[in-house]
Amino acid sequence: MSEQFVPEVLAPAGGLDKLKVAVLYGASAVYVGGQKFGLRTAADNFTLDELTEGVCFAHAHGSKVYVVLNSFLHDKDLSELPEFVAHLEAIKVDAVIVSDLGVVQTVRDLSTIPIHVSTQASTLNVEAAKLWKKMGATRIVLGREVSIKEAGIIKRQAGVEVELFIHGSMCMAYSGNCVISNFTQGRDSNRGGCAHSCRFEYSLDMGLDTEEKKKAFFMSSKDLEGLRVLPEFIKEEIDSLKIEGRMKSHLYAGTMSKVYSEALKYYAQNGNFLSDDLVSWEAELSKVSHRSYTKASLVEKADATSIFNERENSNENEWQMLGTVVEANAKAGIVIEVRNAFNQGDLLEIVPFLGPAILINANEIVDLLMRPLTRTKPTTLVRLPYREGVLAQHLIRQKVH
Ligand code: SF4
Fold it and tell me: What pTM was estimated for this model as a whole?
Protein backbone atom coordinates (compact mmCIF):
# COMPACT_ATOMS: atom_id res chain seq x y z
CA MET A 1 0.00 0.00 0.00
CA SER A 2 1.36 3.47 -0.83
CA GLU A 3 2.07 5.68 2.14
CA GLN A 4 -1.10 7.29 3.45
CA PHE A 5 -1.30 11.10 3.52
CA VAL A 6 -1.78 12.21 7.13
CA PRO A 7 -3.06 15.74 7.80
CA GLU A 8 -1.87 17.81 10.73
CA VAL A 9 -4.12 18.04 13.80
CA LEU A 10 -4.11 21.71 14.80
CA ALA A 11 -5.41 22.32 18.31
CA PRO A 12 -6.28 25.56 20.11
CA ALA A 13 -4.21 26.62 23.12
CA GLY A 14 -5.63 29.50 25.16
CA GLY A 15 -2.68 29.43 27.56
CA LEU A 16 0.64 27.71 28.27
CA ASP A 17 -0.93 24.85 30.28
CA LYS A 18 -3.39 24.16 27.49
CA LEU A 19 -0.58 24.16 24.94
CA LYS A 20 1.19 21.45 26.93
CA VAL A 21 -2.03 19.44 27.28
CA ALA A 22 -2.75 19.62 23.53
CA VAL A 23 0.80 18.61 22.59
CA LEU A 24 0.94 15.73 25.08
CA TYR A 25 -2.42 14.45 23.83
CA GLY A 26 -1.19 14.28 20.25
CA ALA A 27 -1.74 17.64 18.50
CA SER A 28 0.82 18.00 15.72
CA ALA A 29 0.47 21.79 15.93
CA VAL A 30 -1.17 24.36 18.18
CA TYR A 31 -2.27 27.93 17.60
CA VAL A 32 -1.88 30.54 20.29
CA GLY A 33 -2.33 34.26 20.83
CA GLY A 34 -0.05 36.87 22.34
CA GLN A 35 -1.31 39.75 24.47
CA LYS A 36 -2.25 41.77 21.36
CA PHE A 37 -3.15 41.41 17.69
CA GLY A 38 -5.36 38.29 18.08
CA LEU A 39 -9.11 37.79 18.20
CA ARG A 40 -9.61 36.32 21.66
CA THR A 41 -8.99 39.16 24.05
CA ALA A 42 -10.76 37.21 26.82
CA ALA A 43 -8.49 34.12 26.52
CA ASP A 44 -5.51 33.93 28.91
CA ASN A 45 -3.17 34.59 25.97
CA PHE A 46 0.61 34.28 26.17
CA THR A 47 3.18 36.65 27.59
CA LEU A 48 6.46 36.82 25.67
CA ASP A 49 8.10 34.47 28.19
CA GLU A 50 5.21 32.00 27.93
CA LEU A 51 5.41 32.09 24.15
CA THR A 52 9.11 31.27 24.34
CA GLU A 53 8.49 28.39 26.76
CA GLY A 54 5.53 27.13 24.70
CA VAL A 55 7.54 27.04 21.47
CA CYS A 56 10.42 25.19 23.21
CA PHE A 57 8.00 22.66 24.73
CA ALA A 58 6.14 22.05 21.46
CA HIS A 59 9.32 21.72 19.39
CA ALA A 60 10.82 19.32 21.94
CA HIS A 61 7.76 17.11 21.39
CA GLY A 62 7.78 17.40 17.59
CA SER A 63 4.82 19.82 17.38
CA LYS A 64 4.55 23.25 15.74
CA VAL A 65 3.30 26.58 17.08
CA TYR A 66 1.38 29.14 15.03
CA VAL A 67 0.71 32.59 16.48
CA VAL A 68 -2.49 34.44 15.62
CA LEU A 69 -2.09 38.01 14.41
CA ASN A 70 -5.53 37.98 12.85
CA SER A 71 -7.17 41.09 14.23
CA PHE A 72 -7.88 43.91 11.77
CA LEU A 73 -5.60 46.77 12.78
CA HIS A 74 -5.70 50.54 12.70
CA ASP A 75 -2.45 52.43 12.08
CA LYS A 76 -1.79 53.04 15.76
CA ASP A 77 -2.01 49.26 16.45
CA LEU A 78 0.18 48.46 13.46
CA SER A 79 3.00 50.63 14.75
CA GLU A 80 3.42 48.27 17.73
CA LEU A 81 3.67 45.15 15.57
CA PRO A 82 7.34 45.17 14.39
CA GLU A 83 8.75 44.56 17.87
CA PHE A 84 6.42 41.60 18.40
CA VAL A 85 7.24 40.13 14.99
CA ALA A 86 10.95 40.37 15.79
CA HIS A 87 10.34 38.41 18.99
CA LEU A 88 8.33 35.75 17.16
CA GLU A 89 11.12 35.33 14.63
CA ALA A 90 13.74 35.08 17.39
CA ILE A 91 11.90 32.27 19.20
CA LYS A 92 11.28 30.44 15.90
CA VAL A 93 7.50 30.20 15.79
CA ASP A 94 6.42 28.05 12.86
CA ALA A 95 3.96 30.52 11.30
CA VAL A 96 1.75 33.50 11.97
CA ILE A 97 -1.97 33.52 11.13
CA VAL A 98 -2.93 36.80 9.52
CA SER A 99 -5.96 38.46 7.93
CA ASP A 100 -5.06 42.17 7.60
CA LEU A 101 -3.01 43.13 4.54
CA GLY A 102 -1.04 45.62 6.63
CA VAL A 103 0.00 42.79 8.92
CA VAL A 104 0.95 40.61 5.93
CA GLN A 105 3.16 43.43 4.64
CA THR A 106 4.78 44.02 8.04
CA VAL A 107 5.54 40.32 8.59
CA ARG A 108 6.96 40.00 5.06
CA ASP A 109 9.12 43.11 5.40
CA LEU A 110 10.55 42.28 8.79
CA SER A 111 10.81 38.49 8.98
CA THR A 112 10.92 35.16 7.22
CA ILE A 113 8.10 33.69 9.32
CA PRO A 114 5.70 31.66 7.13
CA ILE A 115 2.33 33.38 6.70
CA HIS A 116 -0.97 31.54 7.04
CA VAL A 117 -4.04 33.47 5.92
CA SER A 118 -6.68 33.43 8.65
CA THR A 119 -10.22 32.18 8.14
CA GLN A 120 -11.12 35.82 8.91
CA ALA A 121 -10.16 36.59 5.32
CA SER A 122 -13.00 34.28 4.17
CA THR A 123 -11.05 32.71 1.30
CA LEU A 124 -13.53 30.60 -0.67
CA ASN A 125 -12.05 30.19 -4.16
CA VAL A 126 -8.98 29.33 -6.21
CA GLU A 127 -8.32 32.86 -7.51
CA ALA A 128 -8.33 34.36 -4.02
CA ALA A 129 -5.97 31.63 -2.86
CA LYS A 130 -3.63 32.28 -5.81
CA LEU A 131 -3.54 35.98 -4.94
CA TRP A 132 -2.73 35.30 -1.29
CA LYS A 133 0.02 32.95 -2.44
CA LYS A 134 1.46 35.70 -4.67
CA MET A 135 1.49 37.95 -1.63
CA GLY A 136 3.62 35.47 0.25
CA ALA A 137 1.15 33.18 2.03
CA THR A 138 2.19 29.55 2.39
CA ARG A 139 -1.15 28.33 3.72
CA ILE A 140 -4.79 29.42 3.58
CA VAL A 141 -7.19 28.73 6.43
CA LEU A 142 -10.29 28.48 4.28
CA GLY A 143 -13.70 29.93 5.13
CA ARG A 144 -16.01 27.59 7.02
CA GLU A 145 -18.40 27.78 4.06
CA VAL A 146 -15.97 25.75 1.90
CA SER A 147 -16.59 22.00 1.54
CA ILE A 148 -13.80 19.42 1.84
CA LYS A 149 -14.03 18.78 -1.91
CA GLU A 150 -13.74 22.49 -2.73
CA ALA A 151 -10.79 22.74 -0.35
CA GLY A 152 -9.03 19.94 -2.24
CA ILE A 153 -9.60 21.78 -5.54
CA ILE A 154 -8.25 25.05 -4.09
CA LYS A 155 -5.16 23.24 -2.81
CA ARG A 156 -4.41 21.59 -6.14
CA GLN A 157 -5.22 24.51 -8.43
CA ALA A 158 -3.66 27.28 -6.34
CA GLY A 159 -0.69 25.17 -5.30
CA VAL A 160 -0.90 26.25 -1.68
CA GLU A 161 -1.39 24.45 1.64
CA VAL A 162 -4.97 24.50 2.91
CA GLU A 163 -6.38 24.26 6.41
CA LEU A 164 -10.03 23.58 7.17
CA PHE A 165 -11.99 23.56 10.43
CA ILE A 166 -13.01 20.07 11.51
CA HIS A 167 -14.39 20.75 14.97
CA GLY A 168 -15.78 23.45 17.26
CA SER A 169 -18.07 26.44 17.51
CA MET A 170 -19.22 28.04 14.29
CA CYS A 171 -19.95 31.54 13.07
CA MET A 172 -23.28 31.97 11.29
CA ALA A 173 -21.72 34.79 9.24
CA TYR A 174 -18.73 34.84 6.94
CA SER A 175 -15.80 35.17 9.32
CA GLY A 176 -14.28 38.61 9.31
CA ASN A 177 -17.49 40.15 8.03
CA CYS A 178 -19.78 39.93 11.06
CA VAL A 179 -20.68 43.09 12.94
CA ILE A 180 -23.70 41.90 14.98
CA SER A 181 -21.65 42.04 18.15
CA ASN A 182 -20.44 45.57 17.30
CA PHE A 183 -23.98 46.88 16.91
CA THR A 184 -25.74 44.94 19.68
CA GLN A 185 -23.01 44.90 22.35
CA GLY A 186 -20.56 47.59 21.29
CA ARG A 187 -17.89 44.89 20.96
CA ASP A 188 -15.95 44.55 17.72
CA SER A 189 -16.03 40.95 16.41
CA ASN A 190 -13.16 41.58 14.06
CA ARG A 191 -10.85 43.11 16.64
CA GLY A 192 -11.12 40.50 19.40
CA GLY A 193 -14.34 41.50 21.11
CA CYS A 194 -17.03 39.15 19.74
CA ALA A 195 -19.82 38.74 22.32
CA HIS A 196 -21.25 35.74 20.44
CA SER A 197 -24.41 37.72 19.81
CA CYS A 198 -25.56 35.15 17.24
CA ARG A 199 -26.07 32.66 20.10
CA PHE A 200 -28.62 34.85 21.90
CA GLU A 201 -32.37 34.37 21.85
CA TYR A 202 -34.10 36.82 19.55
CA SER A 203 -37.73 37.67 18.93
CA LEU A 204 -38.97 37.29 15.42
CA ASP A 205 -42.10 39.12 14.38
CA MET A 206 -43.03 37.73 10.98
CA GLY A 207 -46.68 36.93 11.45
CA LEU A 208 -45.89 33.90 13.62
CA ASP A 209 -48.93 33.32 15.80
CA THR A 210 -47.67 32.33 19.28
CA GLU A 211 -45.24 33.97 21.69
CA GLU A 212 -43.37 30.68 21.81
CA LYS A 213 -42.75 30.68 18.07
CA LYS A 214 -41.59 34.28 18.11
CA LYS A 215 -38.67 33.55 20.41
CA ALA A 216 -35.84 31.55 18.97
CA PHE A 217 -32.11 31.07 18.75
CA PHE A 218 -32.44 31.25 15.00
CA MET A 219 -28.89 32.46 14.30
CA SER A 220 -27.11 30.08 16.69
CA SER A 221 -25.22 27.35 14.88
CA LYS A 222 -24.68 23.84 16.19
CA ASP A 223 -21.04 22.87 16.73
CA LEU A 224 -18.99 21.43 13.91
CA GLU A 225 -17.88 17.79 14.15
CA GLY A 226 -16.13 16.09 11.24
CA LEU A 227 -14.96 12.76 12.66
CA ARG A 228 -16.97 10.61 10.24
CA VAL A 229 -15.73 12.54 7.22
CA LEU A 230 -12.06 12.19 8.14
CA PRO A 231 -11.51 9.88 5.15
CA GLU A 232 -12.66 12.75 2.89
CA PHE A 233 -10.12 15.12 4.47
CA ILE A 234 -7.41 12.51 3.87
CA LYS A 235 -8.53 11.77 0.32
CA GLU A 236 -8.43 15.46 -0.60
CA GLU A 237 -5.07 15.82 1.20
CA ILE A 238 -6.21 18.74 3.36
CA ASP A 239 -2.98 19.78 5.05
CA SER A 240 -4.32 20.78 8.41
CA LEU A 241 -7.46 19.94 10.41
CA LYS A 242 -8.26 22.86 12.64
CA ILE A 243 -10.04 22.57 15.97
CA GLU A 244 -11.74 25.77 17.13
CA GLY A 245 -11.66 26.85 20.78
CA ARG A 246 -8.86 28.90 22.35
CA MET A 247 -11.36 29.96 25.04
CA LYS A 248 -12.22 26.36 25.88
CA SER A 249 -11.05 24.11 28.71
CA HIS A 250 -8.00 21.94 29.27
CA LEU A 251 -10.26 18.90 28.95
CA TYR A 252 -11.46 20.16 25.57
CA ALA A 253 -7.90 20.79 24.32
CA GLY A 254 -6.78 17.33 25.48
CA THR A 255 -9.82 15.38 24.29
CA MET A 256 -9.93 16.93 20.83
CA SER A 257 -6.19 16.49 20.28
CA LYS A 258 -6.37 12.88 21.42
CA VAL A 259 -9.46 11.83 19.47
CA TYR A 260 -8.49 13.33 16.12
CA SER A 261 -4.83 12.31 16.28
CA GLU A 262 -5.74 8.76 17.37
CA ALA A 263 -8.33 8.47 14.62
CA LEU A 264 -5.86 9.72 11.99
CA LYS A 265 -3.16 7.31 13.14
CA TYR A 266 -5.63 4.46 13.00
CA TYR A 267 -6.73 5.39 9.50
CA ALA A 268 -3.13 5.81 8.32
CA GLN A 269 -2.34 2.29 9.51
CA ASN A 270 -5.51 0.54 8.38
CA GLY A 271 -6.85 2.56 5.46
CA ASN A 272 -10.35 2.54 6.95
CA PHE A 273 -12.34 2.93 10.15
CA LEU A 274 -14.18 0.20 11.98
CA SER A 275 -17.55 1.33 13.26
CA ASP A 276 -16.68 0.26 16.85
CA ASP A 277 -13.72 2.63 16.90
CA LEU A 278 -15.80 5.46 15.52
CA VAL A 279 -18.41 4.89 18.20
CA SER A 280 -15.76 5.02 20.95
CA TRP A 281 -14.16 8.20 19.53
CA GLU A 282 -17.61 9.79 19.21
CA ALA A 283 -18.31 8.87 22.84
CA GLU A 284 -15.11 10.68 23.80
CA LEU A 285 -16.14 13.78 21.85
CA SER A 286 -19.53 13.74 23.56
CA LYS A 287 -17.83 13.94 26.98
CA VAL A 288 -16.79 17.51 26.33
CA SER A 289 -19.30 20.31 26.77
CA HIS A 290 -20.80 21.12 23.37
CA ARG A 291 -23.94 22.04 21.46
CA SER A 292 -25.50 19.42 19.19
CA TYR A 293 -23.14 18.53 16.38
CA THR A 294 -23.42 19.30 12.67
CA LYS A 295 -21.17 18.73 9.67
CA ALA A 296 -22.10 22.27 8.60
CA SER A 297 -20.72 22.79 5.07
CA LEU A 298 -18.05 20.07 5.06
CA VAL A 299 -20.05 17.91 2.65
CA GLU A 300 -23.33 19.69 1.79
CA LYS A 301 -24.04 23.37 2.31
CA ALA A 302 -25.13 24.22 5.87
CA ASP A 303 -28.86 24.89 6.21
CA ALA A 304 -31.60 25.21 8.83
CA THR A 305 -30.69 21.78 10.25
CA SER A 306 -27.41 23.31 11.43
CA ILE A 307 -29.23 25.70 13.79
CA PHE A 308 -29.08 24.83 17.49
CA ASN A 309 -32.51 25.44 18.92
CA GLU A 310 -32.76 22.61 21.46
CA ARG A 311 -31.52 24.22 24.65
CA GLU A 312 -33.37 21.82 26.94
CA ASN A 313 -31.23 18.85 25.78
CA SER A 314 -27.87 20.48 26.19
CA ASN A 315 -26.82 19.05 29.60
CA GLU A 316 -27.58 15.36 29.17
CA ASN A 317 -24.01 14.11 29.08
CA GLU A 318 -21.97 16.57 31.05
CA TRP A 319 -18.50 15.74 32.32
CA GLN A 320 -16.16 17.92 34.28
CA MET A 321 -12.42 17.95 34.75
CA LEU A 322 -11.50 17.02 38.32
CA GLY A 323 -7.79 17.70 38.07
CA THR A 324 -4.43 16.70 36.68
CA VAL A 325 -2.04 13.94 37.70
CA VAL A 326 1.18 15.58 38.87
CA GLU A 327 3.04 12.39 39.79
CA ALA A 328 2.31 8.70 39.35
CA ASN A 329 4.48 5.80 40.45
CA ALA A 330 4.38 2.84 42.81
CA LYS A 331 6.06 4.79 45.63
CA ALA A 332 4.14 8.09 45.49
CA GLY A 333 0.83 6.66 44.26
CA ILE A 334 -1.24 8.93 42.02
CA VAL A 335 -0.80 12.53 43.16
CA ILE A 336 -3.56 14.76 41.84
CA GLU A 337 -3.84 18.52 41.72
CA VAL A 338 -7.56 18.94 42.35
CA ARG A 339 -9.47 21.43 40.26
CA ASN A 340 -13.04 20.41 41.12
CA ALA A 341 -13.84 18.63 44.41
CA PHE A 342 -14.69 14.91 44.43
CA ASN A 343 -15.75 12.46 47.14
CA GLN A 344 -14.50 9.19 48.51
CA GLY A 345 -16.13 6.41 46.48
CA ASP A 346 -16.57 8.49 43.31
CA LEU A 347 -15.79 6.87 39.97
CA LEU A 348 -13.02 8.79 38.19
CA GLU A 349 -11.81 8.48 34.63
CA ILE A 350 -8.14 9.08 33.92
CA VAL A 351 -7.68 10.12 30.29
CA PRO A 352 -4.44 8.54 29.00
CA PHE A 353 -2.50 10.13 26.13
CA LEU A 354 -3.41 7.11 24.02
CA GLY A 355 -6.14 4.47 24.32
CA PRO A 356 -9.23 4.01 26.44
CA ALA A 357 -9.89 5.78 29.75
CA ILE A 358 -8.60 4.18 32.97
CA LEU A 359 -11.43 3.87 35.51
CA ILE A 360 -10.60 4.31 39.18
CA ASN A 361 -12.86 4.17 42.24
CA ALA A 362 -11.63 6.82 44.64
CA ASN A 363 -12.11 4.60 47.70
CA GLU A 364 -8.86 5.56 49.40
CA ILE A 365 -8.03 9.25 49.21
CA VAL A 366 -5.32 10.73 51.44
CA ASP A 367 -3.68 14.13 51.65
CA LEU A 368 0.08 14.55 51.31
CA LEU A 369 0.52 13.77 55.02
CA MET A 370 -1.33 10.50 54.44
CA ARG A 371 -4.43 11.61 56.37
CA PRO A 372 -7.60 10.00 54.99
CA LEU A 373 -10.08 12.30 53.22
CA THR A 374 -13.77 11.82 52.49
CA ARG A 375 -13.93 14.87 50.20
CA THR A 376 -11.23 16.74 48.32
CA LYS A 377 -10.90 20.51 47.96
CA PRO A 378 -10.05 22.49 44.81
CA THR A 379 -6.40 23.62 44.45
CA THR A 380 -5.10 20.98 46.91
CA LEU A 381 -2.91 17.95 46.26
CA VAL A 382 -4.30 14.52 47.15
CA ARG A 383 -3.06 10.99 46.68
CA LEU A 384 -4.76 7.81 45.42
CA PRO A 385 -3.26 4.29 45.27
CA TYR A 386 -1.09 3.75 42.18
CA ARG A 387 -2.55 2.22 39.04
CA GLU A 388 -0.36 1.04 36.16
CA GLY A 389 -0.71 3.14 33.00
CA VAL A 390 -1.38 6.40 34.82
CA LEU A 391 1.21 9.08 34.04
CA ALA A 392 1.99 12.60 35.14
CA GLN A 393 0.01 15.20 33.13
CA HIS A 394 -2.93 12.87 32.54
CA LEU A 395 -6.28 14.66 32.93
CA ILE A 396 -9.00 13.30 35.21
CA ARG A 397 -12.71 13.68 34.54
CA GLN A 398 -16.02 12.69 36.12
CA LYS A 399 -19.58 12.50 34.87
CA VAL A 400 -21.70 15.25 36.39
CA HIS A 401 -25.18 14.21 35.29
S1 SF4 B 1 -21.51 37.17 16.61
FE2 SF4 B 1 -21.55 35.03 16.00
S3 SF4 B 1 -21.36 35.04 13.77
FE4 SF4 B 1 -20.69 37.04 14.51
S5 SF4 B 1 -18.47 36.84 14.77
FE6 SF4 B 1 -19.40 36.40 16.74
S7 SF4 B 1 -19.63 34.14 16.76
FE8 SF4 B 1 -19.30 34.77 14.62
Answer: 0.93
